[in-house]
Amino acid sequence: PLAQIGVTGLAVMGSNIARNFARHGYTVALHNRSIAKTDALLAEHGSDGTFIRTETIDEFVAALEKPRRVLIMVKAGDATDAVIDELADAMEPGDIIIDGGNALYTDTIRREAALRERGLHFVGAGISGGEEGALNGPSIMPGGPAESYAALGPLLEAISAKVDDTPCCTHVGPDGAGHFVKMVHNGIEYADMQLIGEAYHLLRDALGYDAAKIADVFAVWNTGTLESYLIEITAEVLRQTDAATGKPLVDVIVDAAEQKGTGRWTVKAALDLGIPVTGIAEAVFARALSGSRTQRAAARDLTAGTLGAAPTDTAQFTEDIRAALYASKIVAYAQGFDQIAAGSAEYGWNIDRAAMATIWRGGCIIRAQFLNRIKEAYDADPELPSLILAPYFRDAIEAGIDSWRRVVVTATTLGIPIPAFGSSLSYYDGLRAERLPAALTQGQRDYFGAHTYERTDKPGKFHTLWSGDHSEVQA
Ligand code: NBP
Questions:
Q1: In this predicted complex, what is the ipTM?
Q2: Which parts of the sequence belong to the 6-phosphogluconate dehydrogenase C-terminal domain (predicted)?
């Protein structure tokens, strides 16, 4: 019998997804550049289902029923191009190549166009959920031609996570749409983690709580509107004791955060699209600052100035932090969904934002109760200008706004950095401002560069003759 799906690239992600397909009853053809990985998978997990072992790309392709479906799970970048080239030479028009790696969406656009020329379908699929998700049900964000989804969708939906029987997988849009949405998902994940980090920092340094006590706070928060995978694992990480020292593990880990690059991609793309994703950008830069070890070591004795007193009502301040975290999180998601809308408009993807919230409810790192509210908001108004304006989120922010301001003020007077809390509040105040200082910016731009400005009282573009008689002319 032939295989319904082939997986090439059998490192941790690829082997777990191959096992996931097999456990769902599909016959899976296996291929890896070095055969040892294929054999190791078969030796350890061959009993998970029906696998076909292959050594060469030709054998691999010959093992598949038509239209052939091949999932590539190799290292993103040049390795992916090399594998695509080899596969494309061996495959026939109508066959489907899926890239499940973390590809940059512009690479996916390029690859899709090249393969379309050859009559092949190319599906760039974002897959979230790490190793565990790959095995037990990830969130899958497939892009590519809609017609390929007819042949591929049922398989991907079968192995995806389910929430209320709904698969966490749907066709996102043409060419790079799936990888774009996966990228923004990762950016939001950065913002979410940074906000949680700032809440932890305040509980630790403003209230003086130890790791175990902070773990308890997060565990309680996980029973309310903040309920999510990231809040849940935060409590578990904080509760972990280091075997060697007996201290909380978090107090032993070096405070320099690393990054693999998807957060940076999100911010770069947002800069090009002109979308203010301040929460994600602050998160990426906060990781960079934490990793600036030379500067941090040299700056240790810089003055903090006169600091304020720590809050005395610890219960109230804990609640303030929770409210600030929730409000800032709403802002970060609002910004991320704005970026999805902008990317969708720029590339003609027609992405359904309610559907994206739906497929992020399970399987992925940012899975949360909160995503149901986002889905409802976009279902009620698909053209919603900002998530912040949906009644549910508007009310949630209104309920927490005083807390949010107290947290930003208190953190500032205590000298505790809160880049994401602070910038999210400024973004919110910026959106609601009646008059921003941008009028002055426009005046300056017109002064030094004759860039012109619009007037509040009549249409058109105008320029003041700054180096002449200061009269105004229509541009
Ligand atoms: P890696 O990203 O570590 O890639 C290892 C695989 O790539 C091995 O199968 C290796 O084959 C193969 N490979 C390389 Br490297 N260069 C190759 C080449 N030139 N030709 C053919 N094969 C090549 O594996 P991973 O961590 O399982 O991730 C796979 C993909 O999934 C990546 O794009 C990753 O970004 C993405 N992803 C990972 C996660 C996660 O949590 N790890 C989550 C979501 C997405 P070999 O065995 O012969 O060396």
A1: 0.97
A2: 178-467
